[in-house]
Amino acid sequence: MLATQVWWIIQKDIVHEFRAKQVVPRMILVGVMVAFLAGYQLDLSQQQRQQSAAGLCWLTLCLVAMFAVSQTVSAERESGCWDALRLYPISPQVVYISKMVVNTLLIGTLQAVLVPLFAIVCDTSWLGNPGALLGVLVLGNLGVASVGTLMGTLSSGLKHSQGLLVLLLLPMLVPVVVSAAEAMRLLAVGPLTVAGWRWIQLLATFAVVSTTIGWLMYDYVIEE
Questions:
Q1: pTM of the entire structure?
Q2: Running DSSP on this structure, what letter comes out for residue 38?
Q3: Residue (of 66, 62, 64, 98) closest to 82 by Cα position
């Protein structure tokens, strides 16, 4: 029953995005523009570009992802679908997990475009340990999606919701940006060291804690 409800909401959101094409094309376009600006317009040496590639990549991912997560609820509020969804006998936790999965898919799509693009424009590679790279991307994705889903819902019912979301979300995503960027920077240098695995452990801890907090608090947030 729970899985059926989660899948129903996910399917609804995916079909809506496929038809409307409101989020994915815009966030990819913005992300690509920032990547090219960072790679070719900043007055950095080749070594400086390589060292800053991971940080620029994750900062861009988080900034563009904020646009995506803000749309998953605000678009439904504007169309009236959000109020209709709340009338269904579905727990807030089911809605949270469903929205988080949708945001994870959106951010994953963005990662699939931006990570190789930043590697190309900054002339670096993070493929020394593909398994560790995948772990960093997945855990960072979950961290951004879990916090973004909670804060996106909280701010969507307020005036100037996107500006408020930036103020709420950016400080909370600092651990994700720093941990993921440091882990990927170390991946570019060579085999992942103990320090690199500690950054990945921090990412995993953040993802678990933020998802748990979102799960517990969504019942209150959804009523706002």
A1: 0.89
A2: I
A3: 98
